[in-house]
Specification:
heterodimer, A: 158 residues, mainly alpha, 6 helices, 0% strand, B: 272 residues, alpha+beta, Thrombin, subunit H, six-stranded antiparallel beta barrel, 3 helices, 38% helix
Chain lengths: 158, 272
């Protein structure tokens, strides 16, 4: 169990590097969320206690790299985890298309929610940046799900 | 039953954690834990980027060597040309110094020390605009230290660790800077919009302002030294029912191309 958690933390640090250093270097207005893919994978393949604890810890790491008020990032991702945990028996989360749609829509949802909390108009954020970011988040979400799945079966073969 | 209990306990812990974090932020406190994360990330980032820098450095050195002879000839020619130009520049320099002394610029900025830094990370969200730079307390950075680039004001330090500093960029929706219009000396507050643009607030509708006017810092809060460029007026909206104009600014600094930045150290309080 610990080996999986440490490996997941390693992946988390790597995606923080990609999200905060590589992607802004490519385009300032582009943000791609790799973490939502990890959340979907944890909902599908890990027990609640393990997955939820990992999400709590990870959001504390992510909080260190944003100007958002303390607690908001944790709140957003925990809502996402709990929401997906409730939905996992209703929708087929293993489908790539579903993962793409969840990833893309979560990116839009999080920007809208953050903008509302800050009290700013959503559209000045840049609709093209938002849509491009949502598209790429949708693309990387199944990839992240697959990486976590491979990790899971490598350490804990069924 | 046991599984449900575990779920309830975890949800309770999560709710408590969020409440604690939100309460901490009400007091403007940034937890020491987040500082440790940024500090840890600094070494992680260096470990990843250092080999890349070494390889790219070796490659560029090799390319440099290949072109050295041709470059040497060209540089010798340029050197001759430059020497001639320098004679002219020396004259211009002394003239420039005279003007600067006349304007009192030098006297106003003599206490400043510029400490160079580079960007380490940028905000993970699209709405908030913060960055982490690779200089911290050990390099003389401190909370509320002004961060500038050669083009103008970039932001201020909001949190500092031994090796890193978190910077609130002027384009962040939480950023406010006391400012004035350079030509007319009208005062206002510059706020970030989150989309890369700025607004100048609390300027009366009746004031004479124009598109293209330069906005500079005022040292009202004693955070920024007076006279640093913030941006230019891009658009003005005047509504007869409102007391203040709505003024949109374009920042002087191109946020797409931030490279080297500087922290301003020294006493800024006596510059007003």
């Amino acid at each position: 169990m610990w080996r999986i958690q440490i490996s997941l933390l390693g992946i988390l640090f790597f995606i923080i590097f990609i999200e905060t250093s590589v992607i802004p270097f490519i385009s300032q207005g582009l943000r791609v969320d790799f973490f939502i893919g990890m959340i979907i994978a944890l909902v599908i393949y890990a027990p609640f206690s393990r997955g939820f604890i990992f999400v709590i810890i990870s959001t504390l790491f992510l909080q260190a790299f944003t100007g958002a008020r303390l607690g908001y990032i944790s709140l957003f991702y925990m809502i996402a985890y709990l929401g997906l945990d409730l939905l996992k028996n209703i929708i087929y989360l293993e489908s790539f298309t579903v993962q793409f749609l969840i990833g893309a829509s979560f990116q839009v949802f999080i920007v809208f929610l953050a903008a509302i909390i800050v009290g700013m108009d959503v559209f000045p954020v840049g609709i093209y940046s938002l849509m491009t970011g949502a598209f790429f988040t949708g693309i990387v979400t199944p990839v992240m799900v697959y990486i976590v799945y491979r990790l899971q079966i490598a350490y804990e073969p069924a | 039953m046991g599984r449900i209990n575990t779920k309830i306990i975890l949800l309770f812990i999560a709710a408590l954690l969020i409440l604690v974090l939100i309460s901490l932020s009400q007091y403007g406190s940034s937890s020491a834990g987040f500082r440790y994360v940024r500090e840890g990330y600094f070494f992680f980032h260096k470990a990843i980027t250092s080999p890349v820098d070494v390889v790219s450095g070796l490659w560029s050195d090799y390319v440099d060597l290949v072109n050295t002879q041709q470059e040497n000839i060209e540089l010798k020619q340029k050197n001759d040309e430059m020497q001639i130009r320098c004679m002219n520049l020396e004259d211009l320099k002394s003239e420039n110094e005279r003007y600067r002394a006349m304007l009192g610029f030098k006297a106003a900025h003599k206490d400043f020390e510029l400490i160079p830094a580079s960007l380490l990370t940028q905000d993970i969200t699209l709405v908030f605009k913060t960055a982490v730079i690779d200089r911290g307390r050990r390099n003389g950075f401190f909370t509320n230290m002004p961060i500038v680039s050669p083009e103008g004001v970039l932001g201020r330090v909001i949190d500092v660790t031994p090796h890193t500093s978190q910077v609130l960029l002027i384009t962040d929706p939480n950023s406010s800077i006391p400012a004035l219009i350079e030509s007319s000396r009208i005062k206002g507050i510059v706020k970030g919009r989150g989309d890369g643009m700025l607004t100048l607030e609390y300027v009366r509708r009746t004031e004479d302002i124009h598109v293209g006017d330069c906005i500079i810092t005022s040292s009202l809060l004693e955070i920024f030294p007076k006279g640093l460029k913030i941006g230019y007026i891009n658009d003005i909206f005047k509504d007869e029912r409102k007391l203040f104009s709505e003024i949109i600014l374009t920042p002087c600094v191109d946020m797409e191309k931030i490279e080297g930045v500087f922290g301003i150290s020294g006493n800024v309080a006596d510059t007003d």
